[in-house]
Fold these 4 entries.
Entry 1:
Amino acid sequence: MNKIFGADLNPFYYLGALGFYFFWVVVISGAYIYAFYKTGIELSYPSVEYITNEQWYLGGVMRSLHRYASDALVMVMVLHLLREYILGRYRGARWFAWVTGVLLIWLIFAAGINGYWMVWDKLAQYSTVATVEWFDWLPIFSEPMSRSFLTQDVLNDRFFSLISFAHVTVPLFILFLLWVHIMRISHPVVNPRRGLAVGLLLALLVLSMVAPVLSQGPADMTIEPRTIRIDWFYLYIFPLLDIWSAGQVWALVIGASLLLVVLPWLPSRVNQIPVAEVSLKDCSGCRLCVADCPYEAVVMRSRSDDMHFHEEAVVIPDRCVSCGICAGACPSSNPFRSEENYVSGIEMPSLPMSGLRTAMMKDMARLKGEVRVMVFGCDNAANIEKLRSESVAVLSLPCIAMLPSSFIEYALHAHHVEGVFITGCREGDCYHRLGVLWTGKRLAAEREPRLRGRAERQRIRQFWAASADLKELGAELESFRASLLSLDKGRVPAETVALK
Ligand code: HEM
Ligand code: SF4
Ligand code: SF4
């Protein structure tokens, strides 16, 4: 997708945002149709027919848009779920977004299926009766609900008032749950890039013109519908009810939902590294960690010791995904500090900043050759261990934004190395959401803690690479080393200048 659309417009980087986008398209198109919709057994079908045929140029297009955007919502939701699952982003602190996501699936299907009933055509009749029979299997109703639907006479206008009320209120719950879903995420991406939004809207409009959504003939409770065209995004459960018993379908639906809900707590081979910890005596209450944490896991509270600062940072362990970005933001994570085992304001217990300095110095100390390079990378991106050589030292971090800018200055200072190469997840696809963005801004001196002016920019290169980009990463490193070589060759020693 990157090859076709570029990282900026790759829909896979915006699946959650596209979910929001399609939701809004559904709400706006739905509001238009609702203005002309009439509630009642005799009124609903003709009113939908009026919207579709008499007003085909607007009402018809809106109806089709409403349907196709709802289908697209399911599609991006399923892809979003699969992507988060495949990337392992559902465990630990992420359980909250995951479980609220599972609840969203239920609500979105409830709203979609309910929407089909509003048309009151043969498809509505088929899915209503099938749903009611399916629910009758549950031992919650004293009298089977299906009795109310078996004849045209028993079916009353109250039913239509109920379903049209539900079709407005369930999306309100969805909106509320969407807000809850991203509550623990800072700077959530809820809007896709404009190009993607416009392109997809145009695609939906073209689809609406080429294949307008039509009803399937008025419902008639005296005749069982025989041939029905089905929307496989929402209504696949009904053909399943034709081949399986209601109990079996309940077992499948409840079983699958429960499995999804407990997934974050099932045993895993991946070890969760310990969460960030604040060292109060080293914290000045500057708030940089709060600003950079992608998961709202650090908060500030009034100082609890007698130091002269107003506030102190506190980590909420249940929200922390152990990315280390906060440690990279903290001004006290500074390798120029003189103590060997210095402690920074906020630290990752598995990889303290003093340990990071020792590891970096140790690997740099073995380097040989004219062009020595220190590579910093990310555990979730291309495996930089493969770049290690006689003249290349490597250090991989939980997220590249765990690297304080001062470490780059430190590596270059006193000629430990000729250049520093920074890599991490592809742009727009940072595993910890904001790491690549913050790193880019810190290096461009647009965000604290910024890379200071004294660090020579020609000696620093950024290149973002996923595990599939190892070849390109190696080539970029070589080109960087070549540029460093020519940089140093072109440099005239100071005494030569003086003689001239
Ligand atoms: C249509 C429904 C949904 C919408 C609109 C939606 C939207 C979003 C958005 C906007 C984000 C933040 C993305 C970012 O800024 O990085 C997000 C995160 C997340 N979503 Fe959804 N979501 C939906 C359904 C689901 C479902 C069904 C699941 C899984 C069961 C799920 C699991 C997650 C997880 C685990 C995250 C956190 C990712 C992270 O921590 O990096 N979502 N969602
Ligand atoms: S490691 Fe730090 S930045 Fe990352 S989630 Fe935890 S508190 Fe936030
Ligand atoms: S960045 Fe460091 S010094 Fe600043 S509030 Fe956070 S822990 Fe304290």
Entry 2:
Amino acid sequence: MPDEKSFHMTPEEFRQRGHAMVDWIADYHSRIESFPVLSQVKPGQIRAALPENPPAQGESFDALLKDVDRVILPGVTHWQSPNFFAYFPCNASGPGILGDLLSSGLGVQGMLWSTSPACTELETHVLDWLVGMLGLPEKFLSSSSGGGVIQDTASSAALCALLAARERATNYSSNKKGCDGKLVAYASTQTHSSLEKAAMIAGLGVENLRLIEVDEKFAMHPEALARQVEADKKAGLTPCFVCATIGTTSSNGMDPIAAIAEVCRQHNLWLHVDAAMSGTAMLCPEFRYLQNGVELAHSYNFNPHKWMFTSFDCNCFWVADRNALIQTLSILPEYLRNQASESGSVIDYRDWHIQLGRRFRSLKLWFVIRHYGVEGLQHHIREHVHLAQQFAEWVRNDDGFEIAAPAPLNLVCFRHKGGDAANQIIMDRLNRSGDLYLTHTKLNGKMTLRMCVGQTNTQTRHVKRAWERIQEEAQKLA
Ligand SMILES: Cc1ncc(COP(=O)(O)O)c(C=O)c1O
């Protein structure tokens, strides 16, 4: 009998191409410093280089790889360059990439325990490990009342926390009847915009998200929070949720968790702690003073995909009361019923987030943690913090520049004293040069440059060179 017609890649071909692909990635990482960090293409340039129509016949893998070099690479901003200091890191690593590859190779969809028990159990186990590794409260352990789950992003984690808070405050009736316009949530003026989005999606409405003022360190004022909650209660509204941040996006502001938690306790509000980037620093006990009071939080999240060497996407989200989350998000159609779920002895993570399907994301986290060990992770995080602190010292010692916000960890907000236009010129010229990539924010109405150290391979020489380039551009202004 003739073979059935197939267009698939054979396992042998996959092996060969896979080796070539891994070689390509390893070469890319070796030569990454030769590329301009910020992609220099114009809008539309990448699409213009792509054929108008898809190929009618399949093409060779070699042709594909050639086009990756020719068409795609020029349009890549190199987040994995050690000269990437923009936004926040998104630092990949060898073990993380290989764990991600294995996840694709296994091709598991882990919506239920029974659709791949290892997908669920490894996730539960690794998230329990992380509770200890980050000094989080035991109530977040799966053996306690809570538990952890991997979400795609901090935005999704915040939304899930807000939804659970909404249901808790309305005795689980908002899911049935919708919101009545009276629920109120609280964050600070510096909280990430994902909270606004969450308020929109959760049906509270952005007008019912109160943005509480911050102090000179860009940290939420707990007294202002208490005053606002009391005013809202007096007005007949129903406060239900507070988001406190450990490391705000703009300036790495640190909200006082313990004082905010006390307000939440008094008014029975759900406290969510967003430690998207800075949570990784909690691997090192000496930085945990920044999360004092976290034992009072109802939920907490951080992004290993930012600073913990785990390729995007990977957010870890814990709740103290898993039943509140599950009751909020669980729907059970007949086709998902199975004996394991009904036995009540397994976790079905589909009930812990928005979507149904889920990838085997814990593999990459497991690979990262096992490769580095706690000691290796701590070493590199300390090194990044040390480099940022060194940079801050250089800025302080230069009369032309000033520090714009406290820099407790790896983000330094600073500015040239020449004003907004000068800072804009310095930043634009640096980014256009391709030597490094910096982004900005506005603090107290002034344009501020942000130097965020956290890419996997950033070393002293990169930070030193960045500072030299910044000084060079500043001198040109004069
Ligand atoms: C403090 C904070 N929260 C939330 C986010 C959103 O992250 P994600 O892309 O994982 O939704 C960020 C990222 O900028 C952040 O810095």
Entry 3:
Amino acid sequence: MNSAPVDVDLALVGGGGAASLVLAALNRHGVRGLRVAVVDPVHRRGQDRTWAFWDRPGNDLDPVLSASWRQVEVVTAERRQVLDLAPLRYAMLRSGPVYDRAAEAERRLGVTRVVAAADALDDDGERVLVRAGDAPVLRASWVLDSRPRPPRRPGRTNWLQHFRGWWLASDTPVFDADRAVLMDFRTPQPARGVSFGYVLPVSDRYALVEYTEFSPAPLTDAGYDAALVGYRDLLGLDPARLTVREVEDGAIPMTDAPFDAHPSPRVVRLGTAGGATRPSTGFTFSAMRRQADQVARALAAGRPPVPAPAYPRRHLWMDAVALRALDRGGVSGPDFFDRLFDRNPAERVLRFLDGVTSPAEELAVMSSTRLSPMVAATAGDAADRLRARLVRGQRSR
Ligand SMILES: Cc1cc2nc3c(=O)[nH]c(=O)nc-3n(C[C@H](O)[C@H](O)[C@H](O)COP(=O)(O)OP(=O)(O)OC[C@H]3O[C@@H](n4cnc5c(N)ncnc54)[C@H](O)[C@@H]3O)c2cc1C
């Protein structure tokens, strides 16, 4: 027999990165007296991912960062650019402290945990019934849904950012702890897509070294390992002096497909499912954090927890064009990113990637790319959009 659902003001369906940041933000903004529940078959704890992102130093994350750098390198076969990020920094945050903060917030807020997979959200416009299997487990005034899900329909370009990283401990000092390597394009480039390595040093003997591809499909296990061995050798690291302490891998969508951020009146999607992953880079953390803050501020002020879209529409359009140019081979990835950082202050590029630049700055960023392939990609994108709209129009007749 099904028991009656528990009534709450806010249900977080999915308790990963996006939900953890919301819980911590509710605590930070002093929200109390709100009935909150989290539904997730897994209670996330400890280290299951490492977030790299940029921001302004001097905020609540300072005490929990594993490392941060004022300078980063962008490396191609031709040259090594050293970029000064001031007033920003590039930072590394492991998931452990983020989940710990969420757990602390759960205690303070008296959060109800439902350890189950939510299967359906029935929104009648006033309340949302959250079901796990056949059982209605919660009745919530608002749902923040961050369960992984595909976009509403496939995009015109459907890539992944897929990667594997090794946490490498060396018995001699081999890393420059003052600088991270943001993108190192000396890795062999795939036939379709872009590859790069990067290095996030915590000390001169300990670093996360990753191999990443932006391309249509993941590699095999052996493929990632071979790529990492190649990159380790490229860095001149001696395997006899290294220990792989941990392995981290994952895949993130890079697509111009639409993600529904507000699928029904009282359901809001957050995280990757809500479109927080920037299509041209896979970076997600900053948008999740921004939206978590907006949600908490809204609830603290008694307003609906509906954040602004993760990125402005014009940014999504620019990303669609850039992805298309990279995918159709009009633009080489290493050349694209090298020019972007060479012809703009690093801070402008990073703020652009966060979706917080002005149109004038965006014009400057876009005009630093090679003109003719971008014009071709813009025209191709426009033609595809028109075609798709005509097909949808015919279907709905
Ligand atoms: C290894 C890795 C490294 C990353 N590194 C970076 C980075 O450096 N910088 C960056 O900006 N982004 C990074 N990302 C991308 C992004 O920031 C993360 O994926 C982030 O965790 C996304 O948060 P989320 O809440 O959308 O998804 P998740 O954190 O994956 O959370 C989704 C949650 O939904 C739960 N769930 C699944 N099904 C159900 C169900 N039916 N009912 C209820 N709950 C369910 C899952 O158990 C999970 O806890 C990385 C991603 C990965 C995988």
Entry 4:
Amino acid sequence: MSVTTVAEPMTDTKLDQLSIDTIRTLSIDAVQQAKSGHPGTPMALAPLVYTIWNRVMRFDPEDPIWPNRDRFVLSNGHASMLLWSVLHLTGTQAVNADYERLGHPSVSLEDIRRFRQLGSKAPGHPEYHWVSGVETTTGPLGQGVATSVGMAIARKWLADRYNRPGFPIFDYSIYAVCGDGCLMEGVASEAASLAGHLGLDNLCWVYDNNHITIEGQTSLAFTEDVAGRFLAYGWNVLRVGDANDLDRIQHALSVFRTTKGRPTFIILDSHIGYGSPHKQDTAAAHGEPLGDEEVRLTKRSYGWPEGAQFLVPDGVREHFAAGVGARGAAARSGWTGLFASYRAEYPDLANEIDRMQRRDLPAGWDRNLPVFPADAKGIAGRDASSKVLNVLAQTIPWFLGGSADLGPSNKTTLTYEGAGSFQAESPGGKNLHFGIREHSMAAIVNGLSLSKVRAFGATFFIFSDYARPAIRLSALMELPSIFVFTHDAMGDGEDGPTHQPVEHLASLRAIPGLVTLRPGDANEVVEAYRCVMQLRHQPAVLVLSRQPLPTLDRRAYGPAAGVARGAYVLADPPGGDPEVILIATGSEVSLAVEAHEKLLAEGIRSRVVSMPSWDIFDHQPQEYRDRVLPPTVKARVAVEQASTFGWERYVGRSGHVIGMKTFGASAPLKALQEKFGFEPARVVAAAKELLGRQ
Ligand SMILES: Cc1ncc(C[n+]2csc(CCOP(=O)(O)OP(=O)(O)O)c2C)c(N)n1
Ligand SMILES: [Mg+2]
């Protein structure tokens, strides 16, 4: 067979096979060239990915961010060459972070030749922020499928709010491909359970049932009845016994599209390393190059020119153009026309969609935000947050979220008239009930964010650990996901050390690009939200108190708007010129203020800096940072009910940190504050010691 030129008209069947083998051989060659990567799964799943993309998916390579496109998630991200091949062969165009089309392909053949090399648009794993056409970053197994549930929830919500009779503005489907690894991960189970409960019939997972993982056969560790499990979750379960049978794959996908009330799970029996005479069906095909000789033998088995590398035979790109290209272009142009009529009939809704797609906020989104009067008794961070959330959810129609079964404790439940609960029968509800599934909650919030809905997820701060892998991905993807964590420190006293975060702030502050905010009073909570809502490409964590915190009198102290700069001067000695600086966050801000008043009374010139966010402060100009923390003032005390880890950067080597070096304990808050030294007298003593004024 001639593969470089098409001498006679090719049948569609031949072109199907040629296209599939192009994906396979590009994958093999790229891994071989890189001397690292995962060839086996792309070799096995090329027919699946080909069928989804070229026969089924509604996706226009000319506009990979068209809002009503079908979504494709490669949850087994190690098989990234599947995605790079198909993005290349479809000629998918590049788009930048401002959603502008750049006029060049997203993944070039040169990128594929430079698979896994610095700067290549074909990196080791699919990366959302880096390559257009990637719908979500995958690689940590289980994340992709869990995120796909968020995408499916978003689609249901969007359809409910924006579709009108004759105007199916949002009616896309979500396809996710996963392997054994994804299905062993807890996060996938959490997400599948919720998807079944919610009856997400716009969601289809295809399971690559190849019985192989890295250590060998799945019989080593994974012998459950996967089909039975998904049936029990309430999914429709289908099976395709041969991963090379395009028609059966297509049929299963068509069953998915007509199935109502349940998500679909397709078990696809495949052979990892398909076509490799010595490596097929072995773990050796998973994660290393086949080797030169095996590459030759494999290409021979495909009827491929053995010496050719990175070959895209004539006719293949055209075949994709005639398949997904033509179908996607027609669908997008039909939709564009439909949306123009929709805009004429429903201008306000169309305007909302426009803004949402650009991650803009509606005009006047912050007009009703509360201002809290000074109050010594004060209000808990979570209660202030509740008021803010209920305002924002009304002024920003596409802002929604929920908690992992802690709504009443987190105070994140939207209580205003008509907020509603998101359920299968009420997909317009704005309260999401994630159940006790923190990890998938965070992944689902990411899926919502990827769908341009503005979303938050909530739990106790201590359980942010359960969500951390997905929080990390939100930062890596540069998504404006919002995580609301209450019970920020020792305030949950009697629950004891299992419920008292210690290292969590340090751990989240260490995630690049994540904005972590721990506001010190109710007005700082408001300002923290004001700041967070305006982020377009960064996730944020809000760390809020369970117990009331005094609402500071802003006529006497610095304005809470300083939150926007990460840290600001809250209190100074008369005339300024401090000799000691007290730096605090969250519940320790009022403690620092108390200590400051005592120091002033003793004639010590102290300054209080409220520092709700390290991340934001670190991004301020040097001049501002030096104004808040003058380099000449070396006597500095930081106070925070959390691990002291990292505070040296602000207090310097000569400073002092009052924080946690051990786990907490089970006792009333007052006793804990005394035991661990979170009392004004202790702060005063530390300041005086630094000044040598004992
Ligand atoms: C959370 C997580 N743990 C471990 C890994 C490392 N890892 C990558 S692939 C893989 C095996 C996956 O097996 P399977 O999903 O069956 O993929 P196949 O080899 O069949 O393609 C492992 C353990 C990972 N990427 N993510
Ligand atoms: Mg496997």
